[in-house]
Write a sequence for this structure.
């Protein structure tokens, strides 16, 4: 049941990304171009997503189990540190250069566009490099 609900949640998320235009690099780059021909429509998408997430997030904060009985695992760290800021900057720069973020990239991976395949491979390489560095750091 957990895998089936995860599949449907991912499917709905992917469809939402496609419908919102988040899988269109030109639209994303136009949103990021605040000094030029700015397209604010993705700000509405972000605002809508935040509005939809408020109620479930508040529920999750007060729960010890998910709806399917799994333990609730929310982040507990609240302070900003150099690793968080550096990672956020690196993520944002990559997102801005490519015009796509990881969620939409996975959603459109099967289209076979070479740029998306390169992006996803680079993303996976970055995730692997991070895991190697984390293992080294914890020793």
């Amino acid at each position: 049941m957990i895998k089936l609900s995860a599949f449907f949640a991912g499917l709905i998320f992917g469809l939402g990304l496609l419908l919102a235009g988040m899988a269109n690099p030109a639209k994303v780059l136009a949103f990021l171009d605040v000094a030029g021909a700015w397209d604010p429509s993705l700000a509405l998408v972000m605002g809508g997503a935040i509005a939809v997430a408020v109620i479930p997030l508040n529920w999750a904060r007060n729960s010890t189990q998910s709806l399917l009985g799994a333990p609730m695992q929310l982040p507990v760290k609240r302070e900003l540190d150099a690793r968080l800021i550096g990672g956020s900057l690196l993520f944002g720069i990559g997102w801005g250069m490519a015009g796509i973020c990881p969620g939409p990239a996975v959603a459109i991976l099967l289209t076979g566009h070479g740029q998306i395949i390169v992006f996803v491979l680079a993303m996976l390489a970055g995730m692997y490099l991070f895991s190697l560095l984390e293992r080294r750091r914890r020793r």
Notes: The mean pLDDT is 87.
